[in-house]
Design a protein that fits this description.
The chain has 2 domains: 1-30; 41-171, Sandwich (Jelly Rolls), CATH 2.60.120. The chain has 2 helices and 13 strands, in the order H-E-E-E-E-E-E-E-E-E-E-E-E-E-H. The protein has helices at residues 2-28, 156-171; strands at 41-43, 49-50, 53-59, 67-74, 79-80, 83-84, 89-96, 98-102, 107-110, 115-118, 124-127, 134-141, 149-150. The longest helix is centred in the first third of the chain and has 27 residues, at 2-28. The protein is elongated, with a radius of gyration of 23 Å.
Length: 172
């Protein structure tokens, strides 16, 4: 009799566990709205940004979405430090112009509606031009819990040279 009661108890607990598991699975299939501003934002730290940069968090990575999103606004002359992304990054330009350059000397300009596709481990920087703001949505992928490795600041001389090279390339 005690075995029958034990088996019934185990069976009931298993059914309850399955019910909870189904409920959790169903919850994960529900869409979620993250209210604008609910994740906060911050002013760019001068250790990794030059100039006036504002970052507004849009969403964080999740078990089914291995990347987070942020709206980044660069005032005139503002830019990131050199950096890499272990799993890559996608930038969707929303306003102004976004200038970007890589350590191999390639400089480019992206405009609203353009996407900047950065493969994993490419050393690069991005930001606004000298005379115009730039804004983009950054979709930054994660690998082993990391999404960026910050390097040294881009000097004013390097930045101006990249800006000129990008503008010249655009005219060609």
């Amino acid at each position: 009799m005690q075995k029958i009661v034990s088996l019934a108890l185990i069976s009931a607990l298993s059914c309850a566990h399955l019910g909870i598991a189904k409920e959790l699975a169903q919850m994960q299939k529900t869409q979620e709205i993250i209210k604008s501003g609910s994740l906060g934002g911050f002013k760019g730290d001068s250790k990794i940004f030059s100039g006036d940069v504002h970052v507004k968090m849009l969403f964080k990575s999740d078990s089914y979405r291995p990347f987070g999103g942020a709206l980044v606004r660069f005032e005139k002359g503002a830019r990131t430090a050199w950096h890499t992304h272990p799993a890559g990054q996608t930038l969707l330009v929303t306003q102004g112009s976004i200038y970007t350059g890589t350590k191999d000397g390639i400089a480019q300009i992206a405009k609203p509606g353009d996407a900047v596709l950065c493969p994993p481990d490419v050393e690069h920087w991005h930001g606004a031009g000298l005379d115009e703001i730039g804004e983009h949505i950054a979709l930054t992928h994660e690998k082993d819990g990391k999404n960026v490795m910050w390097l040294q600041l881009l000097s004013d001389e390097e930045y101006k040279a990249y800006i000129q090279a990008a503008q010249k390339r655009t005219k060609e």
